[in-house]
Specification:
By secondary structure, the protein is α+β, with helices and mostly antiparallel strands. It is built from six helices and six strands, in the order αααβββββαβαα. It has a four-stranded mixed sheet with strand order 1-4-5-6, with helices on both faces. α1 packs antiparallel against α2. The radius of gyration is 21 Å and the shape is elongated.
C-alpha cells in the first residue's frame, strides 16, 4: 500500500529507514481510522449489520498491529547524514555504496548506516555503542550476520565493520580506493543483492 505523496525509496537507497518509518506509521493511522469508522457505523446500524461490521473492525486491527510493529522495529534507528553518505558515494566509481539496511537474522535485528562494496572487501558502518565490550560484541555479531547472507551465495569478500565514520572514511581513502580499481561491477551487484534481498 503506497501513500500519496510518500515517495517510494528502495532498499539500499539512502533514506530507506526514514521511508519505512513514515510509510508504516501512515498506513497504521489510516487502518486505525478505517477500523474506528467501521466500528462506529456498526454501533449506529441494526443488530445484524453490527455483528458483521464489528467483525470487520476486529479484522482491521491485525494489519494495523503488523504495520505498527514494523514501525517500532526501526523506530530507534537513525540515518547517516546525507552529506556524509554523498562523500562516500563520490569517493570512487569503483565502489558500490548502499544506504542503511535493516536486516533480521533469527530473532535479532542488525542495522547498517552504509555499506561500501568493493573488490577488496565489504566495508560497513554501524551505529556505535558507548561501552567497548558492547561495541566489540555488536561488531562481531553484525559481521557474522552479514557473512551468513553472502557466504552461502559463494561470495568470499572479507567484511569489515566500523562504528566510527571518520575511521571508515580514512581507511577507504588511504588504503582501499587505490586497490579497488577495475572491479567486476556485476559481481559487486550480486553481493549487494544478497544484502538487499534480506532487508526488512
Amino acid at each position: 500500500m503506497d501513500i500519496p505523496g510518500n515517495k517510494k525509496v528502495l532498499r539500499g537507497d539512502h533514506g530507506y529507514i526514514t521511508y519505512v518509518k513514515r510509510h508504516n506509521l501512515m498506513v497504521s493511522i489510516l487502518l486505525l481510522i478505517a477500523c474506528l469508522i467501521v466500528f462506529t457505523l456498526g454501533l449506529a446500524l441494526s443488530n445484524n449489520i453490527t455483528i458483521v461490521l464489528n467483525l470487520i473492525s476486529v479484522l482491521l486491527i491485525l494489519p494495523t498491529a503488523q504495520f505498527l510493529a514494523r514501525y517500532f522495529s526501526v523506530f530507534k534507528h537513525v540515518v547517516l547524514e546525507e552529506d556524509k553518505f554523498n562523500e562516500l558515494c563520490k569517493m570512487s566509481e569503483d565502489f558500490l555504496v548502499l544506504g542503511e539496511l535493516p536486516i533480521v537474522r533469527g530473532k535479532k535485528g542488525y542495522y547498517t548506516y552504509v555499506t561500501i562494496i568493493s573488490k577488496v572487501g565489504v566495508y560497513v558502518l554501524i551505529d556505535p555503542e558507548k561501552d567497548i565490550v558492547a561495541s566489540r560484541k555488536k561488531k562481531l555479531e553484525t559481521k557474522q550476520a552479514l557473512v551468513s547472507l553472502v557466504k552461502p551465495k559463494g561470495h568470499d569478500q572479507e567484511i569489515y565493520i566500523y562504528d566510527d565514520y571518520d575511521l571508515l572514511y580514512k581507511e577507504l581513502k588511504q588504503n582501499v580506493k587505490s586497490k579497488a580499481g577495475n572491479p567486476d561491477m556485476k559481481e559487486l551487484g550480486k553481493i549487494a543483492s544478497a544484502f538487499i534481498s534480506k532487508t526488512v
